[in-house]
Amino acid sequence: MKADPRQFRQDSARAIGDPTLRANLRHTLGRIRARRAEALAAIEDVEALRRIGNAIKQESLRRLPRLLEQLEANLVRNGVRVHWAETLAEANGIVLAIARANGVRLAVKGKSMVSEEMELNAFLAEHGIEAIEADLGEYIVQLAGQPPSHIVAPAMHMNRHQVAALFHDKLGAPDVPDIEAMTALARRILREKFQRAGMGITGVNFAIAETGTLCLVENEGNGRMVTTVPPVHVALMGIEKVIARLADLPPLMRLLTRSATGQPISTYFNWISGPRRPGEKDGPREVHLVILDNGRSAIYADAQLRETLDCVRCGACLNICPVFERIGGHAYGSMYMGPIGKLLTPQMAGLGQAGHLVGASTLCGACFEVCPVQIPIPALLLRLRQEASQPSPAGRALVRGAGGARNPAEAMVWKGWQVLHDSAAAYRVFARLAALAGDRLPAFGPLKAWARHRALPRPAPRSLHRLLRDRPGE
Amino acid sequence: MSDARTRILERLRRAESVRPYYANTEPAREREWLARQPALGDLAARFTREQELVGGRVLPVAGWDQVPAAVAPWVREFAIGSAATGAVPRLDPLRAHLAGALGVRVLTYDREIEAQRAAIFGVDCGITTVLGAIAETGTLILIPSPAEPRLLSLAPPIHLALLERRALHPTMAAFLESGAFGSGTPGSAAPLVTTPPSNLVMISGPSRTADIELTLTIGVHGPKSLLIALIG
Lengths: 474, 232
Prior knowledge:
The complex is a heterodimer of chains A (about 475) and B (about 230). Chain A is built from 23 helices and ten strands. Chain A has about 475 residues and is α/β, with parallel strands linked by helices. A six-stranded parallel β-sheet of chain A has the order 1-10-7-4-2-3, with helices on both faces. In chain A, a hairpin with a 4-residue loop joins strand 5 and strand 6. Chain A is elongated, with a radius of gyration of 26 Å. The termini of chain A are far apart. The model of chain A has no long low-confidence stretch (mean pLDDT about 90). Chain B has one domain: Rossmann fold, CATH 3.40.50.10420. About 5% of the residues of chain B have low confidence. Classes of the chains: A alpha/beta (about 475), B alpha/beta (about 230). At the A-B interface, helix 2, helix 3, helix 4, strand 1 and helix 8 of A face helix 1, helix 6, helix 7, strand 9 and strand 10 of B.
């Protein structure tokens, strides 16, 4: 299954018609929403906390280049090797070079959205290196040959029966939908992999500039295994993950885990500040950090769109979204799905590739209301819609592929609309014609497609202007 | 790739002075917000309640000398046949009791993992001290060291943690302000001057997942049981 945002219309239509998927999504999203609500109800003044979260991310972004340099200097002092990549190809090349230098044949991975962005597993496989996902959800979708369908719960589109069938098919397990037994099997298989792997690969949730520390949030312990047992650890992060101070961590963590899974804190919260030191008995001998741009610096250049980079990848906007609830994550054709994906994917892949994703929203605003760092997702979607159908207004940075989702027929309709409203005479003629023919509007071409899910407007036989003019007594 | 570095940083520097489109005047600090939160009450009680909510077990013990006798019921309940500790003299009485009266095979994790991997992955229970804990969320804080390596609290299916009551901090912020991580003052303008520990881990309950149908399942990759003696 190859992800492709251009297939969104077909893929979302197929998803809506899949009753199993719809039932699975209703079940899991119902649970995850309830847990988030419960966790946030237990603390006072959540709104102020969200403003603090937003302020921390804004402040970090305001100082981004300096913080990245400070992070690098401190990491290097701590013994971590830092690499920079402008493109996905560069990032993949860096990981491959590290793997080759260490004779790695097998790598184990913690969950990393950046590695999904890089399509790292496929790239390493092409070069003879096997990369195995260690997060249970990621392991399931990897076995199924699918991309993750959610940034926090990658296999949320599958139910226990589907996972059992998959484990039966791929691992020879009995086809019994027993969640504990399936988890135990994955534990057994992956424990052996952790010990054999030559390299561990993870993402980064927060990077602390003042100490040179990489923070990793996880529940399963796979993140600890991957960063402790193999001799080499490679961490991957986007440039936006850096924050200035240790003191920024508590409020961001407070928001992140409650918003993501409804936990006050994750089971494990790892702070990694370097490789195994002299005298230490375990831990990797090498730690590398790859800092990836891939279009983020262009997002950074725009004062409004920059807020996209506040995202802490909690998934709350996916969980609350009425569109995501109906189509799931795969239909978006991108590793970033749901509301935040509709912002990230078009800005990274270009509006020409993914411009229509920004239309897949009712602008209901639920995503903004749950976002722990208050990203104004609806406003940014509107901005991108504008960018998608016409070039940027002067003075603003161009989004890649601006105007790329321009539809000539739609543009013509709006042009006509403008002409009608510019001229009183034209408007009068149009209103008269509409009154005569409006209820017999033939539905064909684009109008027919538009009318398939909507009622066509029926103009009144007498317009409001006419009614006012003809009022008796005047 | 120094070229990539230069180009990325140049692009960011060019855009650095862009004024934020959405101004936020909230101070980027948690302190005032924390002060408005309800009081935590007794720290030990809060810690215990939060740990138990996530599946950990907490046993109050009067003092270090009581630990060997206090953990004996756990040894029977969890059928602990073998246990590993680091090279920590303070644990010698416990080790002696385990190996003697309780008949547990006790080993010491005192060589590099490459020489001890099978033993550490094969033992029933890893025993560690901890640096401290956070009462609000029921979180243990461990800084693995040459004496107590990382895998002791990760590889064995049972983790027995020894926590002193006086090491309880109310919140994560309070722990950071105690200066236990590096010697600088977090949040102040002064940078941290010492090298931070290579690894710090916060642990709240046994390993868990909810990746299949959002159904909570305990014991994925890390310990299936977390037992905590709360000493003092």
